[in-house]
Amino acid sequence: MKGYIGVWTSRKDMLQMEYKRALEFFAECGITTIIVGYLGSHAEYYRHIDLPVVTSKEEPPTLRDICKMAEDVGIKVEVVVEPKCMSLAKRAPEISVVDVFGNRGNIGCLSHPKVISYVQARIRDILENHEVTGIELDGAYIDMHPRMTNPRGQPGALYPYHHVAPESCFCKYCRSLAKEEGIDIDRIEETVKKITKISLELSSRNFYRAFDTFRGQYDMIRFIMKYPELIDWLNFRCKIISRFLEQIKRTVKAIDPNLTVSHDMLPPTWSWSIGQDYAGQKDYCDNYKIVFYHKRVGSFEVNPLIAIRDKIPDVNEDDIIELYKRLVGYEGPPSITYFSQHGFPSTNIYYELRKAREEVGPDYKLIAGIVGDAPATPTDIEEAIIMAAKGGADGFCLHTWYGRTPPSNYAAFGNKARELLMAC
Ligand SMILES: [Zn+2]
User: What is the pLDDT of residues 15-59, one digit of tens each?
Assistant: First the structure.
């Protein structure tokens, strides 16, 4: 049987079931690979980096223990690497992204030499000390704005402006790269500032200005033609990520060419807004994992919609979701509340895989990321992977890191994935 059937494990869930028993259960369900975190570190890998790196000792089971247990049941291990360096950026704000107004964000900038050195050191630490098959990059990207992950209580920003004019990163390293690339960063800065300000002016009048004039995709073309420098900006941000990925790939393959780099990508519909380019970056990764946890995505993506609703209560909330759906082109959901609780219907997974396949061609490995925890049920998971397979996925990955994934969801995932991969 070919194919990849992976699980992004939740340590809490695994320990609850007893780690060894959980792995045996995974093997019975047909799962081929687990993706785990590495909680330890070896100080000698980080000494040359001038950053407040905290080195720590692992609690059992250690990554080495996990690799041994996995090997015993024939399961491969991939280890997550977090390019965003969020906890490091908190301790050393000078490595974080800078928005168009000069504010620091909460993630590291992937142009910053210290961030690149740290991620390379982390990779060496993992791969030189453990028997694993490769790394999974937990999303190499640049925020469209610091509110991207949208914890509640953030100021709202109007669509589509905050997506099409992403406000980071204007740090000195990104600026200097822009100059090297010959793009007009000063003009871009001016335009991004102007559009970001529009996106932050929350009034019913401004909301309906967007609602009434962005009716379909042709209206977006009209807008972009007015600001062609935004295309340079969006492409340049992808270049920053490509440059980073190229260095990561070189680091991994220098250790062992058989080790793999797997990259978590947002769906093609909006991956461009964070600097991810399916066609342009495929040479730097062995495969893409498309993060499409359709039942869960609503509970994250609803926050920016709620922020708009709370700030301008005289706007009809159905119009807020209507404009959002029009822009992303997704089917469903009918209301903000429904979206929050149920996310997107699985038919969108089919279309996202189709778009991704079109971008990367027939031979590139695409793995569909499906959410495992509640409110997803075994039926939801089966439906999602059927849609992903129909759209052209070569493998599947169940995301369970939020915890509370019932055994019936793992079984439904593994069994259905095995069946679909055997059939192709
Ligand atoms: Zn930067």
Answer: 888 999 999 999 999 999 999 999 999 999 999 999 999 888 899
Separation of 87 CA from ligand 1 center, angstroms? 17
Instruction: Quote the ligand 1 centre to 123 CA distance (angstroms).
Output: 21
From ligand 1's centre to the CA of 250, what distance in Å?
A: 21
Q: Cα(65) to centroid of ligand 1, in Å?
A: 38
Within 10 angstroms of residue 400's Cβ, the number of other Cβ atoms is: 25
- Ligand 1 centroid–CA 141 distance in Å is 11
SS3 for 262-303 is: EEEECCHHHHHHHCCCHHHHHHHCCEEEEECCCCCHHHHHHH
- Here the tokens at position 169 are 């990163």
Q: For residue 151, what pLDDT band results from cuts at 50, 70 and 90?
A: low
Domain locations along the chain: 4-37+144-238+262-398+411-423
Give 221 Cα–ligand 1 centroid separation in angstroms: 28
CA 76 – ligand 1 centroid, Å: 35
User: Mean pLDDT of all residues in the chain?
Assistant: 93
In this structure, of 226-235, 236-245, 316-325, 371-380, the range with the lowest mean pLDDT score is: 371-380
Q: How far apart are CA 267 and CA 279, in angstroms?
A: 13
State the distance from the centre of ligand 1 to the C-alpha of 150, rounded, in angstroms: 21
Least confident range of 209-213, 273-277, 402-406 = 402-406
Say how many CA atoms lie within 13 Å of 328 toward its Cβ: 24
What distance in angstroms lies between residue 167's CA and the mean position of ligand 1's atoms? 11
Are 290 and 369 in contact by the 8 Å Cβ rule? The answer is yes
Span from the CA of 99 to the centroid of ligand 1 (angstroms): 9
Contact 51, 95 (CB under 8 A): yes
The answer to whether 117 touches 60, Cβ cutoff 8 Å, is: no
Q: What is the pLDDT of residues 344-372, one digit of tens each?
A: 889 999 999 999 999 999 999 999 999 88
User: How far away, in angstroms, is 321 Cα from ligand 1 center?
Assistant: 32
Q: Are strands 76-81 and 134-137 parallel, antiparallel or unpaired?
A: parallel
Contact 406, 377 (CB under 8 A): no
pLDDT value at residue 1: 40
What's the 172 CA to ligand 1 centre distance in angstroms? 7
SS3 370: strand
Which residue is it, tokens 């089919």? 350
Residue 269 Cα to ligand 1 midpoint, Å, equals: 24
Residue 18 Cα to ligand 1 midpoint, Å, equals 43
